[in-house]
Write a structure and sequence with these properties.
The chain is α+β, with helices and mostly antiparallel strands. The protein has one domain: Bit1. The protein contains 4 helices and 4 strands. The protein has a 4-stranded mixed β-sheet with strand order 2-1-4-3, sandwiched between helices. It is globular. The chain starts with 11 loop residues before the first strand and ends in a 6-residue tail after the last helix.
Length: 123
């Protein structure tokens, strides 16, 4: 058994946002979220990446109702200086090529991320 620890307060987190209006299998959603996580991480500066990695790599997976909501969220993140990457599917399996499926945000400071994602439901 591992010893009991007080809940850690994370200062950094990454948000992965999935469109809720596309029918995707659990595996497909997982793959799209993974693409979003890697792509957004790659856009961050070294200090941000290292801080997030050292702290434990908190990730939250959220959903939006449609593509427009995803695009609006990306615009807001861009304006606030948060790394934001849209993921478009190659169309090899379940959905048409070029379909925007997900948005990777950050990592960024938790309070900055919460300002733009706190009203979104968990996936």
């Amino acid at each position: 058994m591992t010893p009991h620890h007080e809940p850690q307060e994370f200062r950094w987190k990454q948000c992965l946002v999935i469109r809720g209006d596309i029918k995707m299998s659990c595996g497909k959603i997982s793959a799209q979220a993974a693409h979003a996580a890697v792509a957004a991480f790659a856009r961050c500066d070294r200090e941000t990446r290292e801080s997030w990695l050292t702290e434990g790599q908190k990730k939250v997976v959220l959903k939006v109702k449609d593509e427009r909501s995803l695009l609006e969220l990306k615009t807001i993140a861009d304006a606030r200086g948060i790394a934001a990457v849209l993921i478009q599917d190659a169309g090899l399996t379940e959905i048409p090529p070029g379909t925007t499926t997900a948005l990777g945000l950050g990592p960024a400071r938790t309070e900055e991320m919460d300002r733009i994602t706190s009203d979104l439901p968990l996936l």
